[in-house]
Hints:
This protein has one domain: Helix Hairpins, CATH 1.10.287. It is elongated, with a radius of gyration of 17 Å. It has 3 helices and no strands. It is mainly alpha-helical.
Amino acid sequence: MMAGLDVYALAAAALIGLGFFGLIVQMHPLKRLLAVNVLGNGVFLALIVIARRLPGGPDPVPHAMVLTGIVIAVSATAFGLALVRRQARDEEGDDE
């Protein structure tokens, strides 16, 4: 039977792989932005798993990095959505 952290490590690898796959395959900007978010969440989960596996107890530095990364990811997603919206509006205006 798998240990608890092994399940999280596999989930992190799956999220990272799915994010890379979506980033490479998808051409629509919104789907690519979602793929980047899935990839980032996989990296965050991997950092947490690595921090728990270190000898001597969990390390607070990776946890702080993940918390900071979440804040940055939300800001970057909002900026990306604004860019996608502007691109769609500009493409719509070109048709007229």
